[in-house]
Design brief:
172 residues; minor pseudopilin epsh fold; single chain; alpha+beta; 30% strand; 2 helices
């Protein structure tokens, strides 16, 4: 009888059955889908955080304008928002400490209304122009809203002349 057992074990194939391979493939596919979903959620949270930072940066810039009794402008140069100061009839860029890096995944759509020519005085063609002007009286010129898009998220930063900035979210 022991010889018969030895013979039976020799005929048995080594390797995996089709069911074992399918189970492993299903487990790998599930794990991969959870990783993709988690990564997408991470990107959405990162974009939301960057949009909230932009909102806070604009509020801080408005506060600086009031506290320092200075007319400030907000402009975009490459992937940064920068502050400009209006001094002796001209606009000057402030130091890099008052700039904000913009994530390349966030699309910013500025208001269509342009600043009037009286506000834009002193700006030459080779100087950046401010999109917004913040006054020491707390005014924000021109009235409008900034539209921000990132993936499936859309946000609006709204402002009125003397109402400050507000952030609103909308699903796309």
């Amino acid at each position: 009888m022991p010889a018969l057992l030895k013979m039976h074990s020799r005929n048995r194939r080594s390797g995996f059955t089709l069911i074992e391979i399918l189970v492993v493939l299903v487990i790998v596919a599930l794990a991969g889908s959870f990783l993709i979903i988690g990564y997408n959620q991470l990107l959405q949270r990162k974009a939301a955080t960057r949009i909230e930072e932009l909102h806070a940066w604009l509020e801080s810039a408005a506060d600086i304008s009031v506290l320092q009794s200075t007319v400030l402008g907000v402009t975009r140069i490459d992937n940064q928002l920068k502050l400009m100061a209006f001094f002796h009839g001209e606009w000057f860029l402030l130091a890099d400490q008052v700039s904000l890096d913009i994530d390349e995944n966030i699309q910013i759509i500025w208001p269509q209304e342009l600043l009037d020519s009286a506000v834009m005085q002193g700006i030459e063609d080779d100087h950046p122009q401010p999109y917004l002007v913040l006054t020491p009286a707390g005014d924000i010129l021109p009235n409008g809203q900034l539209e921000l898009r990132s993936g499936e998220q859309q946000a609006f930063i709204n402002w009125q002349e003397s109402g400050g900035f507000s952030l609103a979210w909308q699903a796309i």
